Amino acid sequence: MKNETIAALSTAPYKAAIGVIRVSGEEAQKIVGKIFSRDLNEVASSSVIHGNIVDGTETVDDVLLSVFRAPKSFTGEDVIEISCHGGVYNCSRILRLLIKNGARQAKNGEFTKRAFLNGKLDLLKAEAIIDLIDSETKAEARAAVSRMKGSLSDKINSVRGSLIDISAQLLAYVDYPDEDIVDTSPELLRENITNAYDQIEKLIKSYDSGRLIRDGVKTVIAGKPNVGKSMLMNRILGEDRCIVTSVAGTTRDVIEASAELGGVKLRLFDTAGVRDADDEVEKIGVEKTLGKINEAELILAVFDASDEAVFDDEELLAAINASNAKKIAVFNKTDLASADNITVENFDARVNISAKTGDGIEELEKAIASLFPMGSEGEESVMLSNVRQYECLIAAQSELTHALDNIGITPDALLSDIERAVEALGEMTGRTVSEEIIDNIFSRFCVGK
Question: What is the pTM of this model?
Answer without folding.
Answer: 0.79
